[in-house]
């Protein structure tokens, strides 16, 4: 039975459970459940603190886990990313009061508050900057106002928390993060159970980012039309009853669907439809 770690709280937990549900796995019914078995899929889910997941996976007790890339790197655990999942996207950045720090080198001698000591210590060491790091559990933005630090290093998504605290970012992002599937470093990459799990999640990712597009066009316009909708491998082209016309079917990225429909219309395609993809295996 495949043993999988899933975040039990925080920004990762809702979207992770939703993705697993879309991939056909049973999920817990209430947030106090710490472990469930899905016998139909031969999988056992353990609901753990996101920050602990890399450690459990590195220990070899659990086969794979879902966590944040930033949490994985911060943990220093012997685990590696095998599939990015596209949710809980964020950057990790230094921030301070406007006008206090111009560039990275100005961090020298400062005290930096963060919940991600591992990432910050490594970044400072890589840049040869000698600064102190103070660990806080959360609400790090308030540390400057309360005099615990002159600088913070924290997760930034919309920037609202920084603005509300009257802070501005310093330098470029230290890293970009999103939810990722991880496994123990060097674990068997061919394990069929793991491969099947990854294919299911990849199917959800594709279903979320592509739509199916159908349209009719004149045979003379087919090459131009196919250039607009090349599909993932190649579009399906079927004859229509009306001579000189064909029906075309191809997957297109959802974000580009409206532009592609305009372009197809301009070259004479008609009856252009898009439909959602609910699941797929590529
Ligand atoms: N506002 C946010 N937007 C996107 N991702 C976020 C946000 N806040 C945290 N994350 C991501 O969530 C993961 C941290 O999850 P964790 O549960 O430890 O913290 P949290 O979501 O801040 O929850 P809490 O602080 O309430 O426990 C990291 O990968 C981080 O990048
Ligand atoms: O750029 P934003 O969109 O404002 O998002 C970033 C904020 O979200 C998270 O905080 P959370 O609400 O989880 O509280 P915490 O700081 O206690 O973890 C993170 O730690 C930042 O503070
Ligand atoms: Mg938080």
* Strand ordering within the main sheet: 2-3-1-4-11-5
Structural class: alpha/beta
Bound molecules: adenosine-5'-triphosphate, 1-O-pyrophosphono-5-O-phosphono-alpha-D-ribofuranose, magnesium ion
CATH homologous superfamily classification of the largest domain: Periplasmic binding protein-like II
Shape: globular
| Portion in helices | 25-40%
Number of helices: 8
Family: Belongs to the ATP phosphoribosyltransferase family. Long subfamily.
Main location: cytoplasm
Subcellular location: Cytoplasm
EC number: 2.4.2.17
Itemize the secondary structure elements and their pairings.
Elements: E1 2-7, H1 10-22, E2 35-38, E3 43-48, H2 53-58, E4 64-68, H3 69-75, E5 79-84, E6 90-96, E7 111-114, H4 117-126, E8 132-135, E9 151-156, H5 160-164, E10 168-177, E11 179-184, H6 192-209, E12 210-218, H7 222-228, E13 236-239, E14 245-253, H8 257-266, E15 270-276
Parallel strand pairs: 1-3, 1-4, 7-8, 7-9
Antiparallel strand pairs: 2-3, 4-11, 5-11, 6-9, 6-10, 12-14, 12-15, 13-14
The protein binds adenosine-5'-triphosphate (ATP), 1-O-pyrophosphono-5-O-phosphono-alpha-D-ribofuranose (PRP) and magnesium ion.
1-O-pyrophosphono-5-O-phosphono-alpha-D-ribofuranose is lined by residues 138-141, 154-161.
InterPro entries: ATP-PRT_HisG_long, ATP_PRibTrfase_cat, ATP_PRibTrfase_HisG, HisG_C, N-reg_PII-like_a/b, N-reg_PII/ATP_PRibTrfase_C
Keywords: Amino-acid biosynthesis, ATP-binding, Cytoplasm, Glycosyltransferase, Histidine biosynthesis, Magnesium, Metal-binding, Nucleotide-binding, Transferase
Family: Belongs to the ATP phosphoribosyltransferase family. Long subfamily.
């Amino acid at each position: 039975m495949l043993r999988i770690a899933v975040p039990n709280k925080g920004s990762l937990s809702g979207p992770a459970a939703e993705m697993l549900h879309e991939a056909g796995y049973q999920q817990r019914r209430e947030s106090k459940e710490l472990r469930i078995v899905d016998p139909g899929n031969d999988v056992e889910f353990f609901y753990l603190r996101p920050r602990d997941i890399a450690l459990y996976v590195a220990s070899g007790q659990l086969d794979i886990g879902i966590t944040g890339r930033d949490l994985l790197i911060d943990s220093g655990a012997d685990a590696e990313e095998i599939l990015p999942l596209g949710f809980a996207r964020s950057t990790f950045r230094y921030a301070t009061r406007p006008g206090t720090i111009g560039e990275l080198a100005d961090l020298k001698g400062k005290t930096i508050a963060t919940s991600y000591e591992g990432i910050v210590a490594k970044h400072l060491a890589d840049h040869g900057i000698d600064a102190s790091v103070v660990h806080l559990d959360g609400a790090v933005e308030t540390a400057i106002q309360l005099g615990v630090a002159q600088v913070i290093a924290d997760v930034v998504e919309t920037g609202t928390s920084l603005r509300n605290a009257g802070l501005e970012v310093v330098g470029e992002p230290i890293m970009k993060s999103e939810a990722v599937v991880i496994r123990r470093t060097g674990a068997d990459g061919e394990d069929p159970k793991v491969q099947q799990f990854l294919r299911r999640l990849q199917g959800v990712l594709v279903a979320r980012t592509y739509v199916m597009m159908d349209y009719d066009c004149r045979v003379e316009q087919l090459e131009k039309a196919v250039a607009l909708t090349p599909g993932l491998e190649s579009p399906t082209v079927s004859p229509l009853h009306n001579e000189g016309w064909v029906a075309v079917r191809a997957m297109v990225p959802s974000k580009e669907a409206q532009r592609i429909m305009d372009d197809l219309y301009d070259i004479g395609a008609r009856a252009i439809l898009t439909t959602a993809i609910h699941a797929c295996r590529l």
